[in-house]
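Quick one: Glutamine amidotransferase class-I from Prochlorococcus marinus, structure tokens please.
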Amino acid sequence: MSSFQQPTLINQAVGTAVAVNLNNISVTNSFSIQMTRLFVVQHLDRETPGLFEDLAQQHGMSVHVIRVDLGEPLPSLVKGDGLLVLGGPMGVGDLHNPAFPWLEDEVLLIQQALEHQIPFVGVCLGAQLLAHACGGGVEPLLGGDPPRPLAEVGWAPITSTLEAGNQSVIRSLIQPLDVLHWHGDRIILPKNANVLASSVRCREQLFRIGPLAYGLQFHLEVEDEDVFRWIAEDNDFICAALGDNAADILRDQQQLYSSSSRPRRLKLLSDLFSELWPSQF
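--- reply ---
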């Protein structure tokens, strides 16, 4: 695990910068950055930023994907950047697993991003790491009768039970929205988290910590080709959740829900981004 270094104040011609270094990780508050950079932490080849990347680029953000599984270093962040951490089959329980040495550094980077008010979005594993970084955790998701560990896999609706108020993200979810689920754990949220949307099986689907950090246990970003690849490469996981005909079930669901839900999924993504980067949207 990398050693933590205390923040260092640096005076520069462009303004006062606050740098927090963690070996190759740093967070800097600088006034010289013009274009919003979105750094995407990707954990394996099949889980890509998908619609997140498309939307960010459409709104003038520069997207930089970091493949930590291939040894690429975590980024140096400056004020005005954004951080998106994607999913993966590893979990919070693997934080000390030598096979995934970058997980601990990701937690530290998330903590520093929050401290320096850098917008953050965590998807699936990324949402779990966000909760852990803020004092929460994870536990197996239970289902069945009698209850047993049982993953939530496939398309199912999420709904907000909160009053919409002025927050567009919540207004987007007053009516149920079909999204893809692909997880075996549920998040134990820290005390400072607010649940914004839930599914029937899992309460902690969409949550916010502070004004600039969102966790999504579900997947808004996936396109058909992504899901078909997940089905092919994650057969044991899906069969444990849905039975031996899991692949057929998921392909049928994809045909039924993917295209019909896409406009509203894009709307929720846009609302989420506009909350975090209002100047871009």
